[in-house]
Amino acid sequence: MGIIKKQAIQSTLFNYMGVAVGFLNSTILMPNLISKENIGLLGFLNSTSVIFSTIFALGIPLITVKIFPKFRDQSSSSHNGFFSFSLIMTIIGGVLGVVAFFFLEDVLIEDKNEAKYFAPFVAGFTVLFLFRLIFKNFDTFIRMLYNSVLGAITENFLAKAVLTIALVAYWLLEGYDFIYLFILYILGLSIPGIVAVGYVIYKSSFNLDFSKFKRASAGLGKEIKMLGLYGLLGSMGTIIVLEVDRVMISNMLGLAENGIYTTVFFFGIFVSIPAKSVKRVAIVVVSDAWKANDLSTIKEVYAKSCLNQFLFAVYLFLGVWLNIDFVFELIPNEYSAGKYVILFIGIGQLFDMLTGVNTEIISTSKYFRYNTFFIAGLILLVIILNYIFIPLYGITGAAIASALAVILVNVLRYVFLLIKLDYQPFDSNIIKIILLGLACFGLLALVPVFENLYLNILIRGSLLTLLYWVPAFALKISVDINSSLLKLFKKFN
User: Fold this and answer.
1) Cα–Cα distance between 472 and 315 in angstroms, integer?
2) CA atoms within 13 A on the CB side of 222
3) pLDDT by residue (tens digit) across 206-233?
4) Tell me, what DSSP letter sits at residue 119?
5) Residue 162, CB half-sphere, CA atoms under 13 Å: how many?
6) In this prediction, what percent of the chain has a pLDDT beyond 90?
7) Would you say residue 56 has pLDDT above 80?
8) Which of 247, 263, 283, 294 lies closest to 402, judged by CA?
9) Which of 164, 189, 200, 380 is the most exposed place for a label (fewest CB within 10 A)?
10) Where does the pLDDT of residue 350 fall: very low under 50, low under 70, confident under 90, or very high at 90 and above?
11) CA 478 to chain centre
């Protein structure tokens, strides 16, 4: 458990640095410097490249998580040639993905979507897709070497920092041609993949001797193929829930509406930031625990992830929602149409945080194929819900569809773990968090509104922190958080 806490804290630090930079980009710079249409274009590029890189990873992340412990060799950086297998599959996935995009371009980009008429879009997509695919497969390998921090630095902080530099230059140079910003946007999001390649070369893991893998994988061929299939279908569901709404909005409503949705989506997803760090490390620990049949560790990781993620998520959700009207004063008024997008996306993410690392436990267990079955249903559900709610409620309808899908899949995962493994992660502390959150919301709703925008945010943020964390500490809701705070206090003393 120590490695989860240590690397999760380090990763969380960079995640929140990335959040700060992302807030600057999404809330201050982009809405005030470039048009809704261009924001929508960048958002559409981001979503399509994420979806394609997930599909054409060909299930390698799950194969790596499940199979790599059998290939782990501390005496050799090549780990019995496992990386050569990952590299070859990444090349195959990259070729298939590019070919598929060119064949499906007219289906993916409809006439209402202005990206269809932006000539550099296809080239930009191709570059970004390939580097994201590289990062997805290589980063999983790197995390299995117990280094989850590198990916957190590059993906969550460095990539966003490059965009900040590009936007500041755009402002100082009084709006240079958008094509240059488009190129720098792609470069920034490609950095994690570039760094991942450099890291495996530095660690001498970039070994192309596939013969070692063939010898070490004797008898595992059928299992690897099945893992690839289930990993592909399972990861598709998770990504589609988060990304397909922006693709459908772009095609059904246009890039301007997607620009609004993309801008405000950041605030809804904000509550899930703590989970990124925990899940990056937990999946490695859980995978090794399954191999050692260490069920007590898995139960402990599950219970603590539910509790700690939810404790932070409620605090962050309240922080966003109590200040949302003031935040909208920082950006053009037209973006206020996305207010309730934040509410519904936030509710969906709250529920996701409440159910902890359920996906990681299922996907690394012998029941991993079951994860695929209800994920396939989820894909169909989220697309149907978007087709129903987007025409009725516009971008808010997309958020409602996303929230319903996230809640449903997590209910299914919770019930599955309860029935199959008798894992019950919740205790009375969850009720305490809910009551504490409601009490804080009720009290802070009584705080008067002042004329100064920043004073309103500062007062509500400070009061929320005091009213939330002092009782949480006193009630000992989380042993881990209390322990970390006490260590921090001792260091200051």
Assistant:
1) 11
2) 1
3) 566 656 656 556 556 677 777 777 667 6
4) T
5) 19
6) 31
7) yes
8) 247
9) 380
10) very high
11) 24
Please report the pLDDT score of residue 22 as a whole number.
Answer: 78
Query: pLDDT band for position 334 (50/70/90)?
Result: confident
Contact (Cβ atoms closer than 8 angstroms) between residue 426 and residue 399: no
**pTM for this one?**
0.78
Report the C-alpha gap between 30 and 171 in whole angstroms.
10
Amino acid, res. 48: T
CB 56 within 8 A of CB 94: yes
Query: In degrees, to the nearest 5, what angle opens at C-alpha 450 toward C-alphas 433 and 32?
Result: 90
Cβ density class 307-320: b for 16+ within 10 Å, e for less: bbbbbbbbbbbbbb
Phi, psi (5° rounding) for residue 20? -60, -45
Sign of CA dihedral 61, 64, 66, 69: negative
Distances (CA, A) of 149 to 72, 152, 276: 20, 5, 11
Look at the block and give the residue holding tokens 């964390």: 469
Q: Which amino acid is at 308?
A: N
- Rounded Cα distance between 88 and 86, Å, is 6
User: Would you say 323 and 456 are in contact if contact means Cβ atoms under 8 Å apart?
Assistant: yes
Phi/psi of residue 146, each to 5°? 65, 40
Instruction: Take residue 85 and report the two structure tokens written for it.
Output: 């297998």
- The HSE-up count of residue 417 (CA atoms within 13 Å, CB side) is 25
**Block residue for tokens 């925008």:** 453
pLDDT tens figures, 457-492? 999 999 999 999 999 999 999 888 888 778 777 777
Distance CA(410)–CA(426), nearest Å, equals 14
Radius of gyration, CA atoms only, the chain: 22
pLDDT value at residue 15: 67
Q: Which amino acid is at 306?
A: C
DSSP letter string over 59-127?
A: THHHHHHHHHHHH--TT-TTTTTHHHHHHHHHHHHHHHHHHHHHHHHHHHS-TT-GGGG-TTHHHHHHH
**Cα–Cα distance between 26 and 33 in angstroms, integer?**
11
- The encoded tokens of residue 112 equal 């209402």
| Residue 185 to residue 159: CA distance in whole angstroms | 9
